[in-house]
Every structure is written in C-alpha cells, then in structure tokens.
Amino acid sequence: MGCSEKGCSHSDNEGARAADERGIAVRDRMARVKHKIIVMSGKGGVGKSTVAVNLATALALEGKQVGLLDVDLHGPTVPQLLGLGDAPVALQGEALIPVAVGDNLKVMSIAFLLGEKDAAVVWRGPMKAIAIEQFLGEVEWGELDYLIIDSPPGTGDEPLAVCQAIGNMDGAVIVTTPQETALGNVRRSIKFSEMLGVKVLGVIENMAGFVCPNCGEVTHVFNKGGGGVLAAKAGVPLLASVPLDPAIVEAGDSGKPYIYHYSKSPAAQEFAKAIGPILALEDAATQAAPPADASATDTAASAEAPMGDVDTVLRFAVPTSDGLLCPHFGHCQEFTLVDVDAASKQILSVSSIPAPEHEPGLLPAWLADKGAGFIIAGGMGSRAQQLFTEQGVSVVVGASAGEPEAVVRQFLDGNLVTGENVCDH
C-alpha cells in the first residue's frame, strides 16, 4: 500500500512510476497516429472549437481516418457541435473507446465522462496534465491519419501538456478574428509554438466579414484583413478567411457539422481550403529521409519556418529568493528574467528585478509589462494563473527549487520535472 505523505520516498517513487507508465502508454498510442495537429487561439470567443470540428470533418470527408480530441477541460464544446451530447463511452479492457461519427471520425472529450451536463471541472495544473496524458494514452484511437486536438484559449496548462506529452507534434493551426485585441494574443500563440518546437502550419481568420444573404454585400464587423497581415509578418500561410454566417451558429447549436450540411457556402469552401497544408503532410511524410550523415541539428533547423517579425527573444520570469526558485510565487524577493533566443533556444542574458510589494492581482500585469512571456514557479493560485492567461503569459507550476537559469534550461530541453502546486492560495 502506498503512502500519501508529502516527501515520503515511497510515495515519490509511486508517482514517478505512474508518470513513466503514462508516458509509455502515450508513446505507444501516438505511434499509430501519423500526424498530430493542435488547434490553438490566444483568445477566447474566436470560434476555435468550430474551426477544429470543421477541419476534422473536412479531413474525414477526404477519406482520412481522423481523431478529434477535445482538451478544453473546463469548457468542452466539441460534443455539442457534433450532436454527441448524450453519447455513451464504452470500455474495451482498460481502454476508453472514442465516440464514432460516421466511418472516419472518432471523438473524445471530458464532456462524455461527466455525470451531469453542467458539471464543473475544478482541477489544477498537475491534474489537467495527467488527464491529458490519459486521453492520449488510454483511449483506443487505433490507426489514424490525423489526430486534431482542440485546446482551450491561451498558452497555459492544456496546450503545454499536449505538446510535451506527444513530443513530436506535426504542427499547430492558429485561429484568430481580425481585430487587434485578438491578433495580439495570437502572436503569443505563435511564439508559444515556436518555443516548443511546433511548426505553425498557418493562421485561420474567422469571422472575417458578414455576407448579406440578400444583396451579397460584405460588412467587416471586426475589422478587415488583420489575420492576413499577421500571417505575412509571421512568415506563415493564411489558411483561410472564414466569413460570418448565421448558419454556422445554427449548425453548432443543432449539432450538425457545418462543412457537411452547408458545403456550397463561402465559409464551408474556406474551411475546405484550410486543410490543404494538412493534407500536404502526407506527401511530406513519403519523401526520402535526410542523409545518414546529416546531423540532428541540421535536420531540425531545416524544418523550422521563418517567423518574420514575430518576437525572436522569449523572456522567462522565475520568482527567486536567495538565488533559487522560490516556492511561494507572491512572496519572493525578486524575479529573475532569462532571455532566450527563440530559434536556437540559447540563453542570451540573465538579469533580476526586485519584486514589488505584494498586492493581489498586481504581478500578472506587472510582469507582462516587463515583457515576460513565460512564468516558471513552484506554486501559484488559480486566480493568478487566470490573470496571467488573460495577459497572454504561459504559466508552469510545480517546479522544484533550483537556480533559475538551470530551471529554464531544463524547460527548454524538455526535462523540467513538475510536481504538486505547492502554494495554491
């Protein structure tokens, strides 16, 4: 029988063993999936889940075997958009069987496992990471051409857990609307993807303009062309510019995939166009492997897309006391700022700034103003994490005490071990 006492070596060993087993299960399941793609947005309300559902449906209509994983643990909407609200989830041995939509699409969401429709998921970072590993490793996805992963808004726990668990993502699709408030957060999503070595396949501009059903005149409700300008500056394709269509809302509310039921509409044709670079992954996979004498560094460098005007320096902020990461985020002596070259992941500089006097809600805006894009901490309250997300700052909690530069280096190398959120108040 295990021990639950904090610090007990037996308990620590049990936890490490369970983490190793989940990692092995994820690798085994994902080895049967040809291409893994995450759909992200830096801001809520841009229609990201609608985009994910229609991309997955478009790929299935092309005859591909597709999985759709909803990792928006606090606000899952994929089952509603596909009319699967009451669908049962079966067990096969110890594996969950995803819900089938037709012959080519399999779907999994936390919504299938909640006892009540309106039940709230009240989980902190480590719990969410474990749940995501289980969705990847304990669901019988089978042989898939594509796994499309719908993540919640921002660059927080869920997309970070997905990318770190899978480790070899094929790409990210970034969703935005044309106005500047959305575009600023999308830039952070692109920077987040670059930091984790995930290629940005392109940007989808949603709600690009309202087409009058009577006269055909286009009204740009949320500004015009912002997604295209952003994509051009970032050096990535604009995959689609999807106009506003009341039928998209109607289809989502009634659980009908829009691209299937309104295939002739301009918006559906944009969704269909957006899967071009995703289908191109199939062709790229059949190309010859790099020569045997090519170094891993050369191979990785050739796979990276230029990021244009997107920030090339990433700033990490680590709360520190006496030169080490401080477990109490809001009560540290100072913040150590570690600047990293986004392309090479080399640390450029390390500096420190005294922490301001502690006031609730102050630090997220203060650190964002200092240019921080990532926070690595021992523990942090859920409200503070939410405020950082609203500022477009990614948060990693559960890190152990250590020299801040070493902690950032471990994160960059994918070796940072995180545990319990030690100061969640």
Blueprint of the fold:
Elements: H1 9-30, E1 33-40, H2 48-61, E2 66-70, H3 78-81, E3 90-92, E4 95-97, E5 99-101, E6 105-109, H4 125-137, E7 144-150, H5 157-166, E8 171-176, H6 180-195, E9 200-205, E10 210-211, E11 218-219, H7 226-234, E12 238-241, H8 246-254, H9 258-261, H10 266-274, H11 276-286, H12 296-303, E13 313-321, E14 324-325, E15 334-341, E16 347-354, H13 362-369, E17 374-376, H14 382-390, E18 394-396, H15 404-412
Parallel strand pairs: 1-7, 1-8, 2-6, 2-7, 8-9, 9-12, 13-17, 17-18
Antiparallel strand pairs: 3-4, 5-6, 10-11, 13-14, 13-15, 15-16
Helix pairs in contact: 1-4, 2-10, 4-5, 6-7, 13-14
Task: Give the tags.
Rossmann fold; 20% strand; alpha/beta; 425 residues; 15 helices; Nucleotidyltransferase, domain 5; six-stranded mixed beta sheet
Structure description:
- This protein has 425 residues and is of the alpha/beta class.
- The protein contains 15 helices and 18 strands.
- The protein has helices at residues 9-30, 48-61, 78-81, 125-137, 157-166, 180-195, 226-234, 246-254, 258-261, 266-274, 276-286, 296-303, 362-369, 382-390, 404-412; strands at residues 33-40, 66-70, 90-92, 95-97, 99-101, 105-109, 144-150, 171-176, 200-205, 210-211, 218-219, 238-241, 313-321, 324-325, 334-341, 347-354, 374-376, 394-396.
- A hairpin with a 2-residue loop joins β13 and β14.
- α13 packs parallel to α14 (382-390).
- It is globular, with a radius of gyration of 22 Å.
